[in-house]
């Protein structure tokens, strides 16, 4: 096989050209693995998590919202959104739309403004697509159990185009926030803060679930929910480990810090549940896991492991307080029906991680990752190095970045929802809300129903039609 490989190459392409000198096969292979791990977080990870974490009558719809978004984002990404996020500047907030499918682009070396990256652009396109897709799917967690699927089909491409691309271009690309040097290692702001704020905003415009669903919304399969959570947790190895675009020291540190912070956050959330509610909640443990993953993301490769433990303690306690205490006391939070509490697990944990990254970012790690001395130092290190002004300035930049992402997502998500509402209803009608999956898709997740729960009335007449000789008996 190896001896005949060159004969199978396209005409005019030699084996030397297929493996050019600038290509680092180890880095390129790791990047493809990392991108695939991020993709697995969405499909099947969040598909399983959403389909299991909701009431059984919404299992199909919730899982399908995630699956549709994954496919739709990919097409948008390669047709225009990738270059809007990372291409040549068209506006201070946005890159110029362009197609990312040309061979002459995909198989050439990925060019970064700060340092050399030894892999093709195709790796970068695929990896960043997986990030964009999971952002929209995370947002969907706020809308489960009532959003009109046709409205969701319109919402996904519009939100990726008008919101996600702006956040990515402004913080990761050459956008207007480039001079502020906001620390966001792997998407605490671009992905998690934006999905949390946008999800909460969209939930306001879509409206609440059916009153019975909002009062009683148990997960239909906790074991499957844990399986989906497992894909999410282990997939974060690629989520944070792939951000340096090299299989190097920063990648290894980012992966270890990710899991340290997550484990700490889960244990803290679980402990608080046991202290306050006298029970160890499986759902609570999953929420604590998610907040830990989110909190470490903006600083995964630029903080030390001891800081990751502190970040885990904070992410296991502060979002727990906002979700379990503040949410129940606040009329504002009660008014908006955020199905899975995405605002708390992603927006709160995301901004917390961004601020803590500005506090604990270690100068030499920042230099290794960004290849620049313009970032940091973290406020903690600036105190011991007599650079307190620089540390305070970095903290201010972190707050500016968070404020921009939050405000932009409130405005743009509201605009998208209002525009869609002029074409189709954002929310399903009450009859469909009462029935669930069978009314929306004509399909149900389970043939067997739980003890004590009646099958809801079907929308269509399903009375069996027996042959005439059977009716006599």
UniProtKB/TrEMBL annotation:
Transmembrane annotation, as ranges: 29-51, 58-80, 124-144, 151-173, 185-207, 219-239, 245-270, 282-300, 306-327, 339-361, 399-420
Q: Which UniProt keywords apply?
A: Ammonia transport, Membrane, Transmembrane, Transmembrane helix, Transport
A single GO CC term for this protein reads: plasma membrane
Q: Which superkingdom heads the taxonomic lineage of this protein's source? A: Eukaryota
- Topologically, how does it sit relative to the membrane? Multi-pass membrane protein
Write out the annotated subcellular location: Cell membrane
Write down a Pfam family by its short name. Answer: Ammonium_transp
Q: Extract the GO molecular function terms from the UniProt entry.
A: ammonium channel activity
What is the predominant subcellular site recorded for this chain?
A: membrane
Q: Has the keyword Transport been applied to this entry?
A: yes
The entry's family comment says: Belongs to the ammonia transporter channel (TC 1.A.11.2) family.
PANTHER family per record: AMMONIUM TRANSPORTER 2 MEMBER 3, AMMONIUM TRANSPORTER MEP2
Q: What is this protein called?
A: Ammonium transporter
List the source organism: Nyssa sinensis
């Amino acid at each position: 096989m190896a001896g005949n490989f060159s004969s199978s190459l396209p005409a005019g392409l030699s084996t030397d050209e297929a493996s050019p000198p600038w290509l680092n096969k180890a880095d390129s292979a790791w990047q493809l693995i990392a991108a695939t791990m991020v993709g697995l977080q969405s499909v099947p990870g969040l598909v399983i998590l959403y389909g299991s974490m909701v009431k059984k009558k919404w299992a199909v719809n919730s899982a399908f919202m995630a699956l549709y978004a994954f496919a739709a984002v990919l097409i948008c990404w390669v047709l225009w959104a990738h270059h809007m996020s990372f291409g040549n500047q068209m506006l201070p907030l946005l890159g110029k739309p362009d197609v990312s499918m040309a061979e002459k682009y995909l198989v050439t070396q990925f060019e970064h403004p700060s340092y050399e990256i030894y892999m093709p652009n195709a790796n970068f396109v695929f990896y960043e697509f997986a990030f964009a897709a999971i952002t929209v799917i995370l947002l969907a967690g706020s809308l489960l159990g009532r959003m009109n699927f046709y409205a969701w089909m319109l919402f996904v491409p519009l939100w990726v185009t008008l919101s996600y691309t702006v956040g990515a271009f402004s913080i990761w690309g050459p956008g207007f926030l480039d001079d502020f040097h906001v620390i966001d290692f792997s998407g605490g702001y671009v992905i998690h803060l934006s999905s949390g704020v946008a999800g909460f905003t969209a939930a306001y415009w879509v409206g609440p679930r059916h009153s019975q669903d909002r009062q009683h919304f148990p997960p239909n399969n906790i074991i499957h929910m844990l399986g989906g959570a497992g894909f999410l947790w282990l997939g974060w190895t690629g989520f944070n480990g792939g951000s340096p675009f090299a299989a190097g020291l920063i990648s290894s540190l980012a992966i270890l810090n990710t899991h340290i912070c997550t484990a700490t956050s889960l244990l803290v959330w679980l402990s608080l549940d046991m202290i306050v509610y006298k029970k160890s909640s499986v759902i609570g443990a999953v929420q604590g896991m998610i907040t830990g993953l989110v909190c470490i993301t903006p600083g995964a490769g630029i903080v030390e492991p001891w800081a990751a433990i502190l970040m885990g303690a904070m992410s296991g306690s502060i979002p727990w307080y906002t979700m379990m205490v503040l949410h129940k006391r606040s009329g504002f939070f009660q008014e908006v029906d955020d199905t899975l509490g995405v605002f708390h697990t992603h927006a709160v944990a995301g901004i917390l991680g961004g601020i803590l990254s500005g506090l604990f970012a270690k100068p030499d790690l920042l230099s290794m990752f960004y290849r620049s001395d313009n970032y940091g130092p973290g406020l903690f290190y600036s105190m011991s190095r007599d650079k307190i002004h620089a540390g305070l300035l970095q903290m201010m930049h972190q707050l500016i970045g968070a404020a921009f992402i939050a405000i932009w997502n409130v405005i743009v998500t509201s605009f998208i929802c209002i525009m869609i509402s002029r074409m189709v209803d954002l929310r399903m009608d009450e009859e469909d809300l009462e029935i669930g999956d069978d009314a929306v898709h004509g399909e149900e997740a389970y043939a067997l129903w739980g003890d004590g729960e009646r099958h809801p009335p079907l929308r269509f007449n399903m009375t069996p039609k027996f042959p005439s000789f059977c009716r006599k008996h």
